[in-house]
Amino acid sequence: MDNKLECDIVKELSIQYIEKTINEGSEKFVKNHLENCKECSEFYKVMESKIYNDDGQDKLMKKHLKKVHTHINLLRISLITILIFILGATFIFWSKEQRISNLINKISEKIEYMETLDNYRITQTTMYKNLKTGEKSEFKDEYYYKNGKSKRISDSSIIFCEDNSYDSIEVYKDIKQIDYSHYNYIKQKKGGLIGVLSYVKENYQPIASTIYSLALSVREDRYNGLECYVLRFGNENSYKDIWIDKNSYITIREIDEVYGSIYTETVFTFEENIVTDEDVNTKILDSKEYDDYKRNDVNSNLSEQDLKKYNSFYLQ
Question: pTM for this structure?
Answer without folding.
Answer: 0.70
